[in-house]
Amino acid sequence: MIEVNLIYDLLPSADEQAYAEFAKKTIGVTLQAPGLIEFRANRNLCFSSSQVRITCVWQRLNDWADFVESAPWQAMESELRTLTTHHRVEIWGSSLLVPEPIRPSR
Hints:
By secondary structure, this protein is an alpha+beta fold. The chain has helices at residues 16-31, 61-68, 71-83; strands spanning 2-10, 36-43, 51-58, 84-93.
């Protein structure tokens, strides 16, 4: 499995309703992608309420690569760039020392 984080800031001038509609549409398309395991969205609570982190967990790196090369993603990314700035993508794999989550026993 791999985890892909897309981090960006909403533009101060961005129409919040347009962004909400874009997000709903984008989530629907992403959930249909082959190899997608999980989709999460978070906002930064410390420094900026306009900073967003989207996390998608994929079965394989190739699943993510196929998705970002697809026509639907290309169109969504173009629209995203009209509403946001400071884009960053991080791709994470499992740790060699801790390949599975460790949770406290209660």
